[in-house]
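Reopening this one. Same input as before:
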Amino acid sequence: MKQILNIAYYEVVQILKDRILFLIIFFVPLLYTLLLGMIYASSILQHVPLGIVDLDNSVESRNVVSAFENTNNFNVIPEIDTYAGLEKGMKNGTVRAGVVIPDDYSQKLSQHRLTQILIVYDGSNLIYGFNTRRYFQQVLNIFSADHTAAYLGGLGMSKQEITNVMDTVSVNMQVWYNPTYNYNTFIFPGLVILILHQIGLLGIGLTITREKERNSWIQYICAAVPQWKIFMGKALPYFIVNFFNYSLLLWVVARFVNVKVEGSLALILLLGLLFNIIITSLGFVISLYSSNSLQVVRYLMLLSIPLFFISGFTWPGTQMPALLYWLSRLLPYTWMAEGFRWVTVKDLGYNYLNITIIMLSIIAAVTLFFALTFSKRRNPPVGEGLVVNSRNTYPSRF
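Same output, byte for byte:
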């Protein structure tokens, strides 16, 4: 145990001496989370810029305009009052949706003939598209119901008779798990886990390459210290910091970013523990087989983007090509992100997460095995390539 603590103490000293590494490990996860929290601070998409082209300009058409003005879901842009202006506004982003009321709207309405209002919205952004369509349905359903009630009242029907006619079919619509359509609840946990994944790998991924670049790794290879103790000593500081960051970021997103974090605390901690073991072990193995620190950074930069998108967190994995779907099933991020959403958003218990926990445990066991049983054979030094942890070296040719 003393040997492990000595190695861990040495690693802590190296972290404290390297200002960049210290900032990356302790401050970058929190900084990224706060930055993303500011980006998604609104949580729910509101005040969609809307252009209304009223070609009829009648009392009836102005009632339609009022229906859209009296909701927080839309922000009517008064400057957009022609069809050409609406087209231009949709192209340059001044408006994201439009309503065109035909010039014969009131005439057909008085004759009880079918009249159509043109609704357009920008589908280039799926978040705008999905929410705008839903907002349109809400406003128009309410407006149509009010118009029908007014017409039936004009025929001399009592309020109770009107209610009986309009309530012939009733629909009880419920949205489970995320009833407010909070976008933070949908996207933010996956981003936080990705931050922990990448920063965690980067931190411990530089630990062995630093020793290689300083020619001090040979001290560990030649020392009468078993491999598992070297790994435990090197990994212990990063494991503690990563788990601290996991707890801290969960508190931040739940307290300040309005993300739904509910469910069993024990399951949340268990998922974090397994994921942390995987990240720490995998980062150590990457560092073992990387020639230098620059190579580690390159690997992690290449991993970050595809890792997030093939995980199925934002786009259902079953809708991807089969090869990508099954590849994502081998990645720890996929299981962690999915399991975390099930616990915190759906409040599911162990019975629903047993496969997720088993898969994370298997991946943790495999990565831990390779980290604990690495070969102490010294690889030949690499004579080319930049290093970032120690002395200055420069390319021999440009």
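So the earlier flakiness isn't reproducible anymore. For the record, The domain at 48-166 is CATH 3.40.1710.10 (abc type-2 transporter like fold).
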